[in-house]
Amino acid sequence: MKNRFLELSIYNPLLQFLLLLTILFFLIYLTKKLTRSYIVKNAIEPHRRKLILNLSYFLYYTLAFFISLIIFGINLKEVTVFASSILAVLGVGFFAQWSILSNLTASIILFFYHPMRIGDTIKIIDKDFDLQGVVKNITGFYVLLYISEGKREITIPNTIILYKGIELVKKKNNS
To answer: Which burial class, exposed, middle or buried, applies to 138 when counting CB atoms under 10 A from its CB (0-12, 13-18, 19+)?
Structure first.
């Protein structure tokens, strides 16, 4: 009697899974190459490359996970019930911590549409926040600003940067 699991055919789940892994590694390699050439060509900061790669990896791994479930014949209805339960709990958690969700959303908007970059000198135009400094880092939740008076570094939530007026005092020299 033949062992169905070791049988070499296109319908073998193990062979299909190995093919999926090969395609996944090829996509990761291709994404790294294309992102690196795009970053160099357009002079984009390295931390943005890392963010683009992480988002791509998340998409690839999620897709590979669901394809693996299909390959091994796991009932997707049960998986969707489990996933929707997890998402409901996360949704309640994010609603309870609205500022976390708004900071993450603001970071995405800052990443794609704001002219401020690392190394730029900015001034926050607001009566409550009279700050001017050099942008040291932009993360998912805050912007790290170096204030030369007092030689201090402060973190400002991304929502403040997004909702308040920002004046670009001096752009970083890209040469």
So the answer is: buried
What does the block give as tokens for 72? Answer: 């091994």
H helices of 43-152, in order, are: 46-71, 76-96, 98-113
The model's pTM: 0.49
Predicted confidence (pLDDT) per residue in 35-84, tens digit? 888 777 776 777 777 777 888 888 999 889 888 888 888 877 877 888 88
Question: Is 156 a member of any domain?
Answer: yes
103, two tokens = 């900071």
* Residues 103 and 119 reside in one and the same domain: no
Query: Are 13 and 6 spatial neighbours (Cβ–Cβ below 8 Å)?
Result: no
In a domain, 8, yes or no: no
Look up residue 127 and give its two tokens.
Answer: 């009566």
